[in-house]
Amino acid sequence: MSALQIDTSRGVAWIDGELRPLAGASLHFLSHGLANASCVFEGLRVYDGRVFRLRAHCERLLESAAIVGMAVRWSLSKIVAAIEAVVAAQRIGDGYVRPVVWRGHEALGISGRGARVHLAVAALPVGDPYAEVRAAGVRVALSRWRRPAPDVAPVRAKAAASYLVGGLALAEAQAAGFDDALLLGPSGGLAEATGANLFVVRAGRLVTPPPDCFLDGVTRREVIALASARGLAVDVRRIDPRELGECDEAFLTGTAAEVLPIRAIDGRALPAARPIGDALVAAYRERVRRAGE
Ligand code: PMP
Predict the structure, then answer these.
(1) From the alpha carbon of 57, which atom of ligand 1 is closest?
(2) Which of 99, 122, 132, 288 is a good FRET partner for 274, with 20 to 30 A between their CA atoms?
(3) With bands split at pLDDT 50, 70 and 90, how would you rate the model's confidence at 8?
(4) What is the pLDDT, as a whole number, of residue 2?
(5) How many other β-carbons are positioned within 10 Å of the β-carbon of residue 58?
(6) Which CATH number is correct for 131-289, 2.10.70.10, 3.20.10.10, 3.40.250.10, 3.40.50.300?
(7) Which of 124, 192, 126 is closest to 158 using CA atoms?
(8) Ligand 1 geometric centre to CA of 224 (Å)
(9) CB neighbourhood size of 282 (10 A)
(10) Which residue among the candidates 60, 103, 158, 274 is catalytic per the annotation?
(11) Nearest alpha carbon, ligand 1 atom 3
(12) Are 139 and 179 in contact (CB under 8 A)?
């Protein structure tokens, strides 16, 4: 799966309240967010010039910041307006938005007390980064890495710190020839992939684990709603990894991934027919371009 390529030589970013050229943006290497991981962020998609689930992502950004103890100086509506301003300034039709909140370099202590909290937003034109793999499906491997218990890490925050383990799991899976990794949770149930949530289909029912040790995806919630609206039963429950050998379909959900069918798990091919996954891929694609939150 392709990583998003970013051209920082052009475009504007909203940095601490001002629209500025992205090319001039820089970060002090003593920033607390860098060595001490006081950093949370979001990823949003723009479809036909409209940011999909803009409010939900901004709410989660503020929740993530609050969970890791960072007081953001801007209100929800200011952050919504900042994102819209960056997207409009660059006339982005289809794109990706990356807001970041982090502590600056004014204090070196572990707690970060005394360091200023910053907010910046970048937006870049991007089509569908997973277009090629969506039709075929992705090949995933079970990782040796796990998602932590909620008293080990702030699991509900979209915190930069969580991406260290996710990045290692993804790199290992890719080095072994897979597209992505599945991580277990602390009790040995399936949790999620490295940048997307997990659903399996068993006997016509959708099953997804409760988000008790990982991020509750905006896309996950959207897909549960789309499935329910179509009369599909959705069970939110623990999934034993042995169930992967018995499922009829499996797919990932995420802002970048959208609905992404899984073709094989640890070398075991899943059935080529994916009636429920295909229906949800199409329903989600239609949903994101329809007006409304
Ligand atoms: N889990 C992780 C680790 C992620 O990075 C993402 C992508 N933000 C998700 C789940 C899915 O979340 P969302 O649907 O809100 O993009």
Answers:
(1) 15
(2) 288
(3) confident
(4) 53
(5) 24
(6) 3.20.10.10
(7) 192
(8) 15
(9) 12
(10) 158
(11) 195
(12) yes
Question: Which residues, at least 6 apart from 39, have a Cβ–Cβ distance to it below 8 Å?
Answer: 33, 100, 101, 102, 103, 159, 160, 161
Return the residue whose CA atom lies nearest to atom 2 of ligand 1. 195
Q: How far apart are CA 63 and CA 55, in angstroms?
A: 12
Architecture per CATH, 12-125: 2-Layer Sandwich (3.30)
Q: Which residue has the tokens 């001039």?
A: 24
Q: Is 71 left (phi over 0), alpha (psi -120 to 50) or beta?
A: beta
Q: Is 172 helix (H, G, I), strand (E, B) or coil?
A: helix
Q: Where are the domains of the chain?
A: 12-125, 131-289
Active site residue 78: no
CB of residue 222 inside a 6 A radius of ligand 1:
no
Gap from CA of 220 to ligand 1 centroid (Å):
8
Indicate whether residue 255 lines ligand 1 (CB < 6 A): yes
Per-residue pLDDT reduced to its tens digit, 178-197: 999 999 999 999 999 999 99
Burial 218-236 (b: 16+ CB within 10 A, else e): bbbebbbebbeeeebeeee
- Band of the pLDDT at 251, cuts 50, 70, 90? very high
CA distance 112 to 93: 38
